[in-house]
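To whoever picks this up:

The parser on our side crashed when reading a file containing two proteins. I've narrowed it down to the boundary between the first structure block and the second sequence. Both blocks are reproduced below exactly, byte for byte. First block:
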Amino acid sequence: MAPARLSGRTLLTARWVVGHRADPAGGRGGHVLFADGEVVVEDDRVVFVGHGFSGEVARRLDFGNAMIAPGFVDLDALSDLDTTILGFDNQPAWKKGRVWPEDYLKAGPFEMLSEDDLVFQKRYAFASLLRNGITTALPIASLFYRAWGETRAEFEGAAAAAEDLGLRVYLGPAYRTGNQVLVGEGQIEPWFDEARGLESLAEALAFARDVDGTAGGLVRAMLAPDRIETCTPDLLTRTAAAAREMGIPVRLHCCQSKIEYDMVVKLRGMSPPEWLESLGFFGAMTLLPHATWVSGVPGIDRPGRDLEIIRDHGATVVHCPLVSGRHGNTIRSFTRYREMGLNIAMGTDTAPPDMIMNMQVGIILARVMDGSTACRSEHYFDAATLNGADALRRPDLGRLAPGGKADLIVVDFDRPHIGQQIDPIQTLLLAGHGRDVRHVMVDGRWSMFDGVIPGVDEAADKRRAQAQFERLMALYPVRTWGHPPVEDIFSSAYPVVSGPVVRGTP
């Protein structure tokens, strides 16, 4: 069961409140800062934001030197153990188990984790999202260690976990009709099994119809074809048609590497966005992580119209600066995409799922690309809130305004590392991190209060996650080119010297 709502009206106060002001001309409006502001919540809705609420309230909560803000919208939210960190210092990816070798494929890929493991991963990841102030999440997980795609059973477990923890989610098992396969040293080719992929699509559609709107609306459906190079035309056209019929978002990882881009051009005779346009794939809620390898960027010598296609069809670029930056990549750039009129929303896509850190890394990368005046703190804060809500066509999310959903976070500005404040948003992007989120409300319920998520044993969950992670690492040689021993796949920063285990109180 989701956390219980408080009865009656609750008035919240803090040094700063990030409210929302409507556009008189009918646009979406924008965030405003209320110094020593108030937020009043009743049931699942915000009823007042500003100063001097005159109505009756059942209780008052003053959070002092803190910021009350809308919860973050994460369109590419990590929902497993982050296997991408295994590639942080272990490259190239094809040599370190990140691409299936042909002999593993022929032998028959298998599930490397049990159903219980997969359900635990979702709950473990969802708790981490809440700790970092993410109130709306579209989960993403790796298919590298899966037999093929994600299953209905694990996503039924995910729906139950989201309801129990009080996290707003859009759920849909990932599916595909193909995969990248190593046929020689560093030689990657596509491989397809369309019949199997279409069966996975049918299962995903059945799940979407059953889950959409459950848990009092906390759980919604999405469709999640995995990556563009692993999809056939029939899979994508059926996906797009179903999404339009059901009115749900579709997320497709696209334009995220030169390998993917070149593979699509070779297979389809056009760029990834051009191919999607030719299929009629784009819809009202098309989400495209990561768009880091595209044509048509102003000032970048890569001629084409990829970005224009994405923009003109109203699709959203899901920007994940931390995971991209870890691998030496970024969009080129946030400022140029924004100036073109693209909707840029945010995803975390890695551990830690710290949206504040992602905004900080993003603004640093943008300024490295285009200079120190290229973008401002509020541009990234909009991307993590308003733009994500717009991508989902949810004007009741990503902002604190009367009538909107009571999805909010409280960020503690009394932490010693915060230092002196300019304004809360600039302060957040200079000195904050996800661990500064002290309280999280979703749908009018406290999903986390004073850093505690009810029913979650952090220490026990961390031990279980580490044990699962180590079992997964031990299986890597099975699906790594040449099947080297595990110690040759994963290096250590320095030599490891083992010794006796010493426990106890010093």
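<<boundary where parser fails>>
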Amino acid sequence: MTDAALPRPTARPLAVSNWLLSLCALIFVMVVVGGITRLTESGLSITEWKPISGAIPPITEAQWLREFELYKRIPEYQQINNGMSLADFKNIFFWEWVHRQLGRVIGLVALLPLLWFAVKKAIPRRYGWRTGSIFLLVCVQGAIGWWMVASGLTERTDVSHVRLAVHLLTALLIFGFTLWTALDLRSEGAVPRRIPTIGLWAFAALALQLLFGAYVAGLDAGYAFNSWPLMGDEIYPSAAPWLEPFFRNFVDNPITVQFIHRWWAFVVLVFAVALARRVRTLSRRHSAALHAAIGLQILLGIGTLLSGMNLHVAVAHQATAVLVVASFVAAVHRLAGARATASTLPGTRGFEDEPNFPLVPSEAEAR
């Protein structure tokens, strides 16, 4: 069944889907601003967590001086930015404040329409737990953000790269889960779709690449080597230091982390091409979007290295990562729809024979 042949969803599921798509757009902006915040080293400029009162930025000179004095107490200022002017502090404060403000907006957009749709009983059966989980995940993400910032306020001059990875991957998980739910609500009868096996493998490969991308960002590993495809004159520099125990190199060694992130991208490319080939017969636009997103992302990754971590290129690289997630989710969801359609037709074989894993509990399990 082609996209054009699919029946349109009813008004209520469509309204809920539009709300979730709006939330996805805000999360995309949030990830982009988060990238700018990290690349401008602005993340530690606000040293207190005030979810409500912190929405109002400093206005008077006395308020600005108080925030600046708090910043002067942390290692980043004392060891790196000692002597920074108040004007320079205001610049980095701006990006962190915008990042947190967007978090507040996302929290409200996740909560208020949810309450409205719940009161109006507009959320289809079996979607109540999913929409509620999205709001809870947004709340948890706010706490993870502070947990990350707190790691750089006492002994370190930056945040923990592991906590940064948790923060980024949680944001992308929320984005992907929200997008999948929105697409479910737009499908025939708003029936939840199940992830086919190829989708699980593709998501796993992509998640690993995103994890190492977060490690590269948190360790500033992009500065280790600014050449491509070789790292200096070798595939992997033989003189690079090696950490003990062995497994630490895959988390804490900037050179190893950059090496893995460079080449695992092409493993993800293989999965993207496989998905694109599978989905092309169902939807050419899904296939084209997948090719475009993964191709652009690899080029931006190489460009980020060769440009010496240019701010604009690096931010574009992080923004495109969200588009890659979106294209993977959309393509896998379209394949899941084809499988669901095939399984309802007698005597068909193909997608219906492929093992699958539910995103939602079955009706029997729910009861």
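After patching the parser it read the second block fine. Strands lie at 195-196, 356-357. The longest helix spans residues 86-119.
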